[in-house]
Design a protein that fits this description.
Low-confidence stretches: none
Strand content: 25-35%
Distance between the termini: 13 Å
Number of helices: 14
Bound molecules: uridine-diphosphate-N-acetylglucosamine
Radius of gyration: 21 Å
CATH architecture of the largest domain: Alpha-beta prism
């Protein structure tokens, strides 16, 4: 296995362009199934989740080429309609292939993506959206079998699910007729997906507003597109700079996508300046962070659940107490036990976590139990006194492209050791 060695206590300094967004590239790769010719994507992050998506595309018959951060997908030979259990389990987001696969081939056979490290993650909203578009869905022990050509319909989501909104958009674009999705998720990645689809000739409007309108049945072409920057990676790096102190400038991410996170970091005493394609965070290392009151996760534009763990990690060493309320997922405090082993004072009761600030965390051996929890432990480690050894990197590598490289670019003392014997 691999581990990160992180020696904390150095202020972070410098400028960095943030990687492309995982949560944008994954639905866009699935959307390539709908294209009428080769699609060239730029700014694709190199992540294990992206590799898993490319594996599914190849398995379905697409020709795929990857060079650095560019990926070309040619879907012209894609005739498959089955995604294997192993592929469905490799990545929770594999369910996003359902809508476009059904629209392309008139059938889709797959299995449940399964629970994940964040707790139960149902797909009922995805399936009811597919049914609302006139397709048959059979669920059983053998998996999920969908048939039919999507026609327009009205989809009212009971929860503004990001994945269900994307699946519904992709299925509807490939079908005939007009579709209206109400209570749609408003995340920036939904807007990026709309932009991509319209680049190929689709007619999708309203993304970002809660009501998405799709005129299906238009022939799509190939094309090229640049993936937006990753706001959650940016939130993690800003949290790291808040924890360690220093002065960092991030580029490649729209600060408006991070307004809720920047608000909390500002309340904690960080100087924030934002402009076109630029977010700057400054904290004098000798001046401790302040508590940030209450942080409640919510659908966009609320505070993102994916930034909860990294921001909590930064606030462990602060003056005063901060309440966190996790409203999106059941098991999203798995980083807490590890933060405690670094000296943090955190009390969890149900969806609430009370962080009582301490002076300083200390380095420890910690293990990531999920993706953003892993990011959080790295944040804690760069602010801590002494060395931390972070394991569980297979979680981290799902969403951060070379986290150690990014932190090093900002002056942190971090390196990856490979071939480490795991504890018996
Ligand atoms: C996406 C993001 C993930 C982020 C999450 C919430 C991707 C690849 N992942 O995940 O990083 O943490 O949004 O911002 O974009 N739900 C149901 N039934 C469903 C679907 C969802 O009850 O059929 C519930 C979920 O259990 C959860 C809530 O809806 O409580 C929101 O989940 P959702 O927005 O669907 O998250 P994902 O799309 O899986």
């Amino acid at each position: 296995m691999s581990v990160l060695h992180i020696c904390g206590g150095r202020p972070l300094e410098g400028e960095l362009t943030v990687q492309g967004a995982k949560n944008s590239v994954l639905p866009i790769l699935a959307a390539c199934l709908l294209a009428g010719g080769p699609v060239e994507l730029f700014n694709c992050p190199q992540l294990s989740d992206v590799a898993a998506a490319l594996d599914i595309l190849r398995h379905l018959g697409c020709a795929v080429r990857q060079r650095g951060h560019a990926i070309v997908v040619d879907p012209s030979g894609a005739e498959g309609s089955t995604i294997s259990e192993a592929q469905m389990h490799a990545m929770r987001s594999s369910i996003i292939f359902l809508g476009p696969l059904l629209a392309r081939t008139g059938q889709a056979h797959l299995t449940y993506p399964g629970g994940c490290e964040l707790g139960a993650r149902p797909i009922d909203l995805h399936l009811s959206a597919i049914r609302a578009l006139g397709c048959q869905v059979e669920e059983g022990a053998g998996g999920i079998h969908c048939r039919g050509r999507p026609v327009g319909g009205e989809i009212c989501l009971t929860i503004p699910s990001v994945g269900a909104t994307e699946n519904a958009m992709l299925c509807a674009v490939g079908g005939r007729g007009t579709t209206v999705i109400t209570n749609a998720a408003r995340e920036p990645e939904i807007v990026d997906l709309q932009r991509f689809l319209n680049t190929l000739g689709a007619r999708v409007r309203g993304a970002g507003s809660g009501t998405v309108l799709i005129e299906g049945g238009r022939p799509l072409t190939g094309g090229s597109y640049t993936i937006m920057g990753d706001r959650i990676v940016a939130a993690t790096l800003l949290s790291a700079a808040a924890a360690a102190g220093g002065h960092v400038v991030l580029r490649g991410v729209d600060w408006r996508h991070l307004a809720a996170v920047l608000g909390v970091l500002h309340q904690a005493g960080c100087g924030i300046r934002s402009g076109e394609d630029r977010i700057e965070l400054e904290r004098e290392p000798s001046r401790p962070l302040q508590a940030a009151g209450e942080v409640r996760t919510a659908p966009y534009p609320g505070f993102p659940t994916d930034a909860q763990a990294p921001v909590m990690a930064a606030l462990c060493a602060s003056q005063g107490s901060t309440w966190f309320e996790e409203n999106m997922f059941d098991s999203r405090y798995r980083h807490v036990a590890e933060l405690r082993s670094m000296g943090a004072d955190i009390n969890v009761r149900g969806r609430l976590a009370l962080v009582r600030g301490v002076d300083r965390l200390r380095g420890a051996q910690v293990a990531a139990a999920d993706l953003r929890g892993g990011g959080a432990l790295a944040v804690a480690a760069v602010g801590a006194r002494g060395e931390s050894i972070l394991s569980g990197l297979h979680h981290v590598d799902r969403g951060y492209e070379c986290l150690e490289g990014m932190l090093r670019e900002l002056g942190a003392d971090v390196h990856r050791e490979t071939g480490v014997q795991s504890a018996p």
